Amino acid sequence: MTDAPHAHRLGAKAVSPHTFGAAVLTVSTSVAAGEREDGGSPPIVDAIEKWGFRLESTAVVPDNVDEIKAALRNWTANRSVDLVLTTGGTGLSPTDVTPEATLELCGRQVPGIAEFLRARGLASTPLAALSRGACGISQGTLIINLPGSPSGVRDNLEALEPIITHALEIVTDRPLPAAD
Prior knowledge:
Elements: E1 21-27, H1 29-32, H2 41-50, E2 54-61, H3 65-76, E3 83-87, H4 98-105, E4 108-109, H5 111-122, E5 135-138, E6 141-146, H6 150-160, H7 164-172
Parallel strand pairs: 1-2, 1-3, 3-6
Antiparallel strand pairs: 4-5, 5-6
Helix pairs in contact: 2-6, 3-4, 5-6
């Protein structure tokens, strides 16, 4: 596992003292090997900051179930990480194994979020139907698989924006203070 290029943004001051911590995992053998630029994580990091969450960690791993699970397990054991957003490894290729790694760790699946993201993606491209992205809860951490394409990531983040805070309030049993 290697650190992603967003280390300078880690621990950025959150909007609310009761906000949520988030981590971003890029799953791509070519990005991990330095052969391709990571296009998926920059919009995720931007969204995390826009939503007022703390960016706790970022990492890049190759398309390998054990390495994906190790990164996810590290973050789900860390009580400061309430949300993990992954990018990549959700397609039909035999090497796309992010959903399998995610679901092996999750005691509870949240299929409604994955179905919602696919449905919203279909408004932009029929290729969204080929996504196998999953969503689940592991040790009080919500894990959501996003596609690897920057446009797919942006579509999914736009869809998540109106529901993500409420989802995390429920998962963590920490409702945010009501706005005045």
